[in-house]
Amino acid sequence: MAQKKNIKAQVNCDELLEKYLLFLDLMDQIPDVIYFKDRKGRLVFVNRAHAKGLNLKPQQVVGKTDFDFFSRERARMMAKDDRYVMDTGKPIIDKVERATRPDGIDNYVSTTKIPRFDKKGRVIGLIGITRDITRRVHLDSVSQEKTAIEKKLSVLEELNKLKSEFISTASHELRTPLAIIKEAIMLVFEELAGPVNEKQKEFLRKAADNIGRLGHLIEELLDISRIENNKIKLHYSLVNFSNLIREPLAFFNKMTEEKRITLKYDLPKEEVNIFMDVGKINQVITNLINNAIKFTEEDGSIIVELKILETKVRVGVIDTGIGIAKADLDRVFDKFMQISSASGLDRKGLGLGLAIARELVERHGGEIWAESKLGVGSKFYFTLPRFYTLNTLNKETRDRIKILLLRGIRLYLISLLIINYKEFKKRIKVSPDKLSLDLKRLIKTTLNEFYRKGKERPEITMTGFANGE
Fold it and tell me: Please, are residues 240 and 272 in contact by the beta-carbon 8 Å criterion?
């Protein structure tokens, strides 16, 4: 019997030892601060993380209180929580607060304190767990800021939409009465309503000029509204670019003569034929030349050049005007941005011209930029593609092409762009499907003839005919 008791006692000891070792392993490895305190606030046990935070060893911490390690104010706050737990027997769960470590670093911690009871149910101390949640707090803060920003953006987007709708509506509403006023002024000017003397005609001319300016501002507002609402449409046609640039020559010459500005054109001798929306690109060129004239003082010079590059053409408007400050250069294409306020030159306008020009150029697949030096002059450039190819190839076809190219196999890509397809469709008697088959037959016949002497036969892949365009 005694032997059995000894064996049982030995088993209990082994179990207790195993549990104690597991407890020590937990205390040593867990990154959270864990400690036990008696009713007087003395630390009776601390884990490695607690001691490490104090730059001490566990045995150097045991027997001391928080007043030995922290500021008096901080230690009082901790002691107040300890007293609450031990006096009421109620725990404090996940109390989040900002703290300062003994090494002076500020952080956020979550502290849980639970009472310890003896066998008779009396509180004999507490167990505390403190976790550093600085990263969590920062992430929560970032998340809250993100949510707040998203709400603000949503409000701003709605306000921007309302602003665009208001501008569009107001501009349309102004158009009709403005046209009526202009027509009435011209009727009076032409003396259809009775004789008018020269002094009166001078006033009528000024009124007509300002109505024209106001009409231009309304058109700019409508353009920017269409752009913001993605309602702008491009109507392509094949154009001799040099001729397009020359067309307003007489109009600009009149403007430059008034300021004694020399206006020169540097255009290539050969024809430069490009697909573009004539009205939109003419608007860009006109805007750039108008700006150059506006910001170039008397006796200055302006050069309008057209350069043919490998896959694109570049238009440049170069002036000897007042220039643009370096700080403003990156913002000249922003909406409602006035590019300069220097000197006494007339700079009336909304600051939308360059913003519209950028959108129109980029819609054509081109780029626009400015180079300038204050007091020396400015150079505005924009490019347009010389050749248009439609990206109608699906991913599978593109991947096949890539593999063939990597194997060194020669490929031919034929891209057919039909401008104003609706008009084209009216002129042909065949269906889109029949047209695509005819085109495929023509391409196949041509390539077969080309490869007639070779062993391999061309593989033809047709894409992009889903809508007959």
Answer: yes
pLDDT given for residue 90 in this prediction = 95
Structure tokens at 41: 């606030």
What is the amino acid identity at position 147? Answer: T
Q: How far apart are CA 264 and CA 261, in angstroms?
A: 10
| Placement of tokens 């290539």 in the chain | 268
Confidence of residue 371 (pLDDT cuts 50, 70, 90): very high
As a whole number of Å, the end-to-end CA separation of the chain is 102
Residues present in the chain in total: 469
Four-residue CA torsion sign, 256, 257, 260, 265:
positive
Under a CB-based contact definition with an 8 Å cutoff, are residues 138 and 107 in contact?
no
Could you list the beta-strand ranges (E) of 76-137.
92-100, 106-117, 123-132
Nearest CA to 364 among 312, 291, 288?
312
Band of pLDDT at residue 332, cut at 50, 70 and 90: confident
Phi-psi map region of 397: left, alpha, beta (phi>0 left; psi -120 to 50 alpha):
alpha
Average pLDDT over residues 362-373: 91
Bridge partners for 141 per DSSP? none
3-class SS of residue 343: coil
